[in-house]
Design goal:
The chain has about 400 residues and is an alpha/beta fold. It contains 15 helices and 14 strands. The chain has two domains: about 190 residues, Glycogen Phosphorylase B (Rossmann fold); about 170 residues, Glycogen Phosphorylase B (Rossmann fold), CATH 3.40.50.2000.
């Protein structure tokens, strides 16, 4: 794997690095896969390097995927990281990338300096805000802001460009005067995620009669605030609303959430990680409302998938999701009562209208637009002879 890799005769070799990716990962894994497929369609050669339990090197529809052994990050619920700098550096030198794309702003930031010395244009993709993540882990807001400013200034210096998926995510760079920030939205698979997947059979399986069916699609970790969904369910039931919650996702907080649901006799069903994407889309289409309580989300792919399935979203007002959701959902303060009130407001809208609005909003976010924006950040043009056929 560390030998000199022959360069492809056409297109650019775009080497992508990412940490915190597992077989059960959600949004980041989806984005990496879709972007890789899009790069190939545009005539380029994507190579993805991720950590795993063992080494591998395989060819996939998103391009070549190289896995390097990496340790599990304690307390992360199974996330692994690339920590062997020597091995990774040797691999990069052998691959001879034309472009470098890094989806980790902490442990892999050193690769920006490597790319600068190797004269390889490099971009860092900001999948989360630094101060938002620090605040969700309990760092006081002022201290989180100062630490984020230092981290972001170093990142902006290390990379040719910083890619942010929303204006909300861009703000923490703009406030310190960073000038090499570009915006590139993520997308949604509008063919896989469709309103016509709404299923009476699924509804009967997961909801009791005419109960309101809420859905949380999220990693069950502290920064996602999954407990807020249970807070909202408890508030709704306390107000006399017959509601049930379906949780699709896994993570380190799952056991505690299950214990709470049992103790409070809340009708919550934990499905764990739903591997089959079409089945997940069916759940998203069947739910009445999708909850997105993460306060530091910079885009929210699962929420956008729900919209594509015709299901409106209640999202944290402190995240980027109100920018993505628009009038196809509602923003709420970070309390269970506020989320419950937003759910009731959405349910008061005629069902046909709220579902049509959700789908219409999602149709603004196709992956083709996203791929084009990411390639523009790389100064990587689409080859006209490669357009049309998706591998």
């Amino acid at each position: 794997m560390n030998g000199r890799t022959p360069r492809a005769p056409d297109g650019l070799r775009i080497v992508r690095l990412a940490n915190f990716v597992t077989p059960a990962s959600g949004g980041l894994r989806t984005a990496l896969d879709e972007l890789g497929r899009g790069y190939r369609t545009a005539g380029h050669e994507p190579v993805l390097i991720v950590p795993g339990a063992t080494a591998s090197d395989v060819r996939t529809p998103q391009g070549r995927v190289i896995t390097l052994p990496g340790p599990v990050l304690p307390g992360s619920g199974g996330y692994r990281v690339l920590t062997n700098r020597g091995r990774l550096r040797s691999l990069l030198e052998g691959l001879r990338p034309d472009r470098l794309e890094v989806s980790d702003r902490t442990t892999l930031r050193w690769t920006g300096e490597w790319a600068r010395r190797a004269r390889v244009p490099a971009v860092m993709v900001s999948h989360e805000t630094a101060d938002g993540v620090l605040r969700t882990w309990g760092v006081p807001p002022a201290a989180a802001g100062r630490a984020a400013d230092r981290l972001n200034a170093r990142s902006a210096h290390a990379y040719a460009r910083i890619v942010c998926t929303t204006e909300w995510a861009e703000r923490e760079f703009v406030r310190i005067g960073v000038r090499n920030v570009v915006r590139a939205p993520l997308g949604v698979d509008l063919r896989r995620c469709r309103p016509d997947l709404r299923s009476g059979t699924l509804r009967a399986r997961h909801a009791d009669g005419d109960a309101v069916l809420l859905l949380l699609c999220s990693r069950l970790s502290v920064e996602k605030r999954p407990g807020r969904a249970l807070d909202a369910l408890a508030a709704l039931r306390g107000q006399g609303v017959r509601a049930a919650l379906l949780v699709a996702g896994d993570g380190p907080l799952r056991a505690g959430l299950e214990n709470r649901a049992r103790a409070e006799r809340l009708p919550v069903e934990f499905l764990g990680h739903v591997r089959e994407r079409t089945h997940l889309a069916g759940l998203q289409a069947t739910a009445d409302i999708c909850l997105a309580p993460g306060p530091a989300e910079t885009f929210g792919l699962s929420a956008l998938e729900a919209l594509a399935c015709g299901t409106p979203v209640v999202a944290s007002g402190t995240s980027a999701l109100p920018e993505v959701v628009g009038d196809a959902g509602l923003a709420a303060a970070d309390t269970g009562e506020a989320f419950a009130a937003a759910v009731r407001d959405l349910l008061a809208r005629p069902e046909r209208e709220r579902r049509a609005a959700a789908r219409a909003r999602a149709e603004l976010f196709g992956w083709e637009r996203s791929v084009a924006a990411f390639l523009a950040a790389h100064d990587a043009p689409e080859r006209s002879d490669a357009l049309g056929a998706r591998p």
